[in-house]
Design brief:
Blueprint: H1 4-9, H2 16-23, H3 29-41, H4 50-75, H5 77-83, H6 98-116, H7 119-136, H8 146-169, H9 177-197, H10 202-207, H11 213-217, H12 219-243, H13 247-269, H14 271-298
Helix pairs in contact: 3-4, 3-8, 3-14, 4-6, 4-7, 4-8, 6-7, 7-8, 8-9, 9-12, 9-14, 12-13, 12-14, 13-14
Length: about 300
Amino acid sequence: MLRPAALAAGPARPSPAAVLELLKPITWFPPMWAFACGAISSGVPLAGKAWLVLAGILLAGPLVCGTSQAVNDWFDREVDAINEPDRPIPSGRVPGRWGLMIALGWTGLSLVLASLLGHWVLWASMAGLALAWAYSAPPLRLKRNGWWGNLAVGVSYEGLAWVTGAAVMLNGMMPGASIWLLALLYSLGAHGIMTLNDFKSIEGDRRMDVASLPVQLGVQRAARFACLAMALPQCVVVALLVSWGRPAHALAVAGLLLLQAALMPRFLQQPRLQAVWFSGFGVALYVSGMMVSAWALRGLGVAA
């Protein structure tokens, strides 16, 4: 339950700083990066389309991802009042139903901008927003199950953002099959990245009946799954790049994957203690491989 004292003493409306904290700018990087990968992978020259790229980055990060954060905090407000009472909604800094209104307003703004960037961008944005609401809001509330919740976030933050970036550069046209394939593979790998985030909240998830993968599988099995989920899609990417005649890019992605593999034993020895460490270094290598793959597709031509 929200703290009555905080609500009674709180403002009638949120300050800009409280709204920005609710939208969590630190979470915007993954979809913005994936969007940039998509834009590069399209094969379309970037010259003369800077405004499209900037508009797409605004859509992927502050708007769609920001919406997902507001939605999540609104529907988690009772839990946050117990576990993290200083967050904007339970603390009263985003009072009343302002959290819900911001989530709805940001959804609308996202759709307006997406509609200006082409019908494929609009459809991809609608799918991402639907996943954002399904992840946090009842009756689906996908976050209660680590299999579905982590998949929804991976698809939204990586795959859809990648495809949207390509579609923006292609003037709203449907991207080619290779773009869709790499977007799918990196979305699946992001499932492992999301699993890494679950190790820090095992006790809380058990108390709140959230079936994260560490809760469902146990710590060691979930750690092994996270590593495999990240590594296997990248192995497929390497094979695809070779088959597409991009051996230098394949070698670079393979090298980044080997560096991730070198970090995994330390994580697997103490998953709960080392998950944040592995996430910090391993994910940086993972997303670097995404960009290498995007440049490989760029070399294949427009709408690869």
